[in-house]
Fold:
Amino acid sequence: MKDLELKCYEEIAKKIHADGVETLAGGNPCTYTASLLVYLEEYLKTQSIESSIITALADDLLTEDQKCKDLLSELGDDRYGY
Structure:
């Protein structure tokens, strides 16, 4: 894969991450958004491509999503804000 193509995937991942952060800032989990980033990361791995940027974005969103779910659960919201 050319560097330009990888950069495009990384830009898409950044946009997905930003959308997830926005959802979290609204007090809601972003499980589907985090899953999409993980899917993108796994797809690239099947192509024998690794991106530390995409991995970091996916890990960050998964961690923050879990924190949000834990907080909502502590507050008695078993539906995670939905």
About this structure: The chain has one domain: 3-74.
